[in-house]
Each structure stands twice: as C-alpha cells, then as structure tokens.
Amino acid sequence: MKAAFFKEHGGAEKIVYDDYRDPVPEAGEAVVRVRACALNHVDMLLLDGRFPPPEGLPHVNGCEVTGTVEAVGAGVKGLERGGRVIVFPGFSCGRCEYCLRGARTVCVRYGYLGAHKDGGYAELVKAPATNILPLPDGLSFESGAAVPLAMVTSWHALVAQAECRPGQTVLVQAAGSGVGSAAIQIARLCGARVITTVGSDDKIDFARALGAEHVVNYRTQDFVEETKRWTGKRGVDIVIEHIGGETLERSVYALTRLGTLVTIGSHDTHWGRLDLRHVYSKNLRILGTNLGSILELQTILEHLVDGRLKPVIDRAFALREARAAVQHVLDRKNKGKVLLVPS
Ligand SMILES: [Zn+2]
Asked: pTM for the full model?
C-alpha cells in the first residue's frame, strides 16, 4: 500500500509518501481501507520526537480514521467487508486493575492508533475489531474522521470530568484547534457560556459561529484580564487547557473559586508552573484527562447525525500531499480539522 510515513524525526519535510508494509489482520483485528484521516497535534509531537513512537521508526501517524472494512482476522464477527466504519483510537487491555474499574483510558497498556501503532496516513490501517464501530449513514467519511480523538477528548473533559452545567462559564483555549472547536460546541450544548482565545483576528468570526460569546486574541490582549472583565471580576468555572507552559499557569488565574481546570494536552510544552496559593486558597481542581469511552463516541455520533454538534473541517488534502497538510497545521493556518483523503 501507499502511506505517508517518516523514518526520522523533524518537520513536515520528513514525511515521505511511498510504499509501506501492508497491515495484516491478526485474530480479533480488522483492516480498514482509509477514506478519511484527520490530523492532530499529537501527530506533530510524534513527528518531531517530543513523543517518539513507542514501536520506533518508520512510523505512520493518524489517530482519527473512517473508512470501509477491507479484511478481518480470525474470530471477528459483525464486520462486513465494505461496511462503513469509524475507528475508536484508544487501545486498552481490558484486564488490568484500571480496565476492570471501567477506566480504560488509564489502562497500564494503553495505546493510541497512530501513536503506539501505525495510523491512518495510509491507504490501509488495522485496529482491534472491538474498536471499530459502524459510521452512521447520515455522516460522511470526512465528518466522521473529524471527531474520534478531538471531540471525544473535549466531551470527556467537559461532561465527565468537569461536570459542566447550564449557566456556568467556560474558558476554552485555542478555538482554532480540534479540541478547542469541539469544546466550544460541547460547552454550549451543556448550556454553559463560553469565552475563548485565538491567535489571529481572522479566527474571531469562526469562534463566534461555534458559539463563543467572547473571543480574545491572545497575541494582542491579556486573556486573564479579558476573562475577569467578561465575568464581572469573578473568573470562570471551567478552563479547558491544552497548551501548557505560561498558558496553563495563567489559565489558573482565570478560574473562580471552586473552579476546575482540565488539562487535555501540552501542545507548546509538557511543562507548566502553578502558583499553589491559588490552588489551595480557592479550592481549585486541576484535572488531567485523555480521550474518553467508546460510548461517548457513540453519543457524539448521535449528536452529529441530529445536528446538535457539527464537525469542524478546515480542508482536506490528498494523502500524497500529507507533507503540505502537516505544514498547514504546523503553521497554525487551520480553523478546525485538517483531513487526508485517498489520493
Ligand atoms: Zn488495561
């Protein structure tokens, strides 16, 4: 098959579009012919070596995949060749202490499609059959590929972890990102009011259209001051943070008493500093979360079919143009998800 992979770490120039080993389904696995695969920020960390692929190089990125069933391994039932499917990107063992507790995202053997295994920047990809769900008829391959990582992570952060409620205020960092554009919509669906940040003025209307009430350009405005102003000096109930560093530190100052910050990524840096006085004197909650459950993905798909949530797609590139797609994301030119589709 053809794939867009990398043999050494670096920037977009390291992506090679060429022949790559065909995935072979083992027992309990299925191979999917990729019809759309979305890019994520974690792809960039895998590419540049900040999060080196655990199984080494060469490696194929791509966590969010829709397609059709191409082949199944021994013992797989319920997947028809040619059936339209979406792949849930989190792998878990189902047997460790945390899986048995129902907390599969902290499985001791947890892995991601496209990180711990080769992903969807390819014509074919394989995954455990239990991770493969039907893609509802009302959803295109492109729409489906925009949700399994970013939207599930934002959903789990806001609904399950922060317990977002009607009337609350939420600060969403980086409206233009996949998780940001999802979090704005999900917070609105919960009945909360949203303030968000963007890095350029051309993303302001985009953020408003998603449901944000107040949009701050973090390059020209102070988001903490703007949050305080917007909330009448009170601060917000919830922050969804995925940048790290100073953004994490300052996001804590934007919280009101008893507020919750959920960290779901570290797109700029893995490190962050906290002024602990704010954390203990205001009784803040700082929570970490990653991905969510297959049930949450199914719930999101229902909301998408009914139009209560919408996939936010910036544009699609042909698989052979994967290098340009990666550069587009690295340059932060995207408003929402960037996709790869068959060449
Ligand atoms: Zn486990």
From this structure: 0.93
